[in-house]
Amino acid sequence: MRIAMIGTGYVGLVTGTCFADLGHEVICVDNDASKVECLRNGEIPIFEPGLENMVKHNVSARRLSFTTSYADAVSDCEVVFIAVGTPTKETDGSADLTAVYAVAKEVAKHLKGYTVVVDKSTVPVGTGAEVDAIIRAANPNAEFDVASNPEFLREGSAIDDFMKPDRVVVGLEGDRPQQVMQALYRPLTLHETPIIYTSRTTAELTKYAANAFLATKVTFINEIADICERVGADVQDVSRGIGLDSRIGPKFLQAGAGFGGSCFPKDTLALTGTARKVGAPTLIVEAVMAANKERKRRMATKIISACDNNISGKTLGVLGVTFKPNTDDMRDAPSLDIIPLLQQAGAHIRAYDPEGMEEARTYLEDVEWVKDAYSVMLDADALLILTEWNEFRVLDFGKIKSLLRRPLIIDLRNIYSPAEVAAAGFDYHSVGREIVTSNA
Ligand code: NAD
Known about the structure:
Elements: E1 2-6, H1 10-21, E2 25-29, H2 33-40, H3 51-60, E3 64-67, H4 70-74, E4 79-82, H5 98-110, E5 115-119, H6 127-138, E6 144-148, H7 158-163, E7 168-171, H8 175-189, E8 195-198, H9 200-231, H10 235-243, H11 264-277, H12 283-306, E9 315-319, H13 335-344, E10 348-352, H14 357-361, E11 367-369, E12 382-385, H15 397-403, E13 408-411, H16 418-423, E14 427-429
Parallel strand pairs: 1-2, 1-4, 2-3, 4-5, 5-6, 7-8, 9-10, 9-12, 10-11, 12-13, 13-14
Bound molecules: nicotinamide-adenine-dinucleotide.
């Protein structure tokens, strides 16, 4: 099938490339000419494991190409995806649909023959109907249907998530668009991927419900971690103890620094807005947002208290600034709240992140960026672990000890065992577990 993917960011580039890899012919469109130029030169603007090779492979097989021209992309396509950003509106916290509607208007001009226009962006209930109306008004003769096909991929494991999804959700009205979507996803159904066909409204809401639920799970275990710290319990054992219950499940039960990223913060906010608007406020999700905001402040306090309540003039070595490993995405990363709070308390921050530093420089001021993990430690008064990149999981304790001014590790991702770190001669503070002091 011939597919146009409008918006070549995280979602558009990954899903467009994966559809090409499944054998479809995909043209990715973006209005950022420099991004398209980069991609045409074989440069990948985001860090996502496995993506670069997959893009190269499909470009050379002539199944994947990049353009800024809607005319080139849309006219011969059976399916046009809208995968542009839907950021938070500054004014009221709702999803900003300007880009989605601009795409709908532009796509309408170039439709020829029957086309299914598919919303892949995360959009509030009713957006599909609005996209339908915009296209109909701009091109009354166009033959098309609008479907909703929200994306559930996670940055860092996006290719796997696309190729082996837990499920695909498709919202549409009528047989004709369903046949097209079935043909599109046929390669995945061969692997018995469950595909849920439902109404457009239901599909739109399903995406927000999924993200709000996951954000709730993360926030819940973070609060349990706080209780663990007060009573001397171990949150990792609690997580295992509840996660093995099949009604609960083990994922998203790792206590940490609070959720961030490009989706949970904005999607929880947008959902609470919709809920209030329709007269069904979701008090749970509102509480989750408030607790998560407070969480990051609490993490800064925890760090300061581990440093004897005084970080003024001290150097803190920070490992990891992205909101999770295997991505360079800095949107709403907890580090963006925690680091400025530490700076306000007088600390000098020296930091390293394997992929996020270039992006982070635009968000964080007065940070000394260094080229590897050990370089953050030289004469630092404490080592902070803010993101659980694999390369931080087996650091050489002897080397860390020789570099740090004081053997103190504050690990907000629980990547080490307290006993092991104490045995290596460190004071070690983690999340929801006992504080251990050096017994070397
Ligand atoms: P992004 O900001 O990385 O990419 C959006 C792209 O759209 C950019 O390259 C931008 O230049 C382009 N664009 C904007 N307006 C355009 C226009 N008029 N014509 C052509 N291109 C245009 O965003 P993203 O992270 O890929 O997210 C896209 C959507 O998918 C959002 O609604 C997001 O909530 C949702 N989503 C994101 C993820 C994720 O992990 N990033 C996961 C699931 C769903």
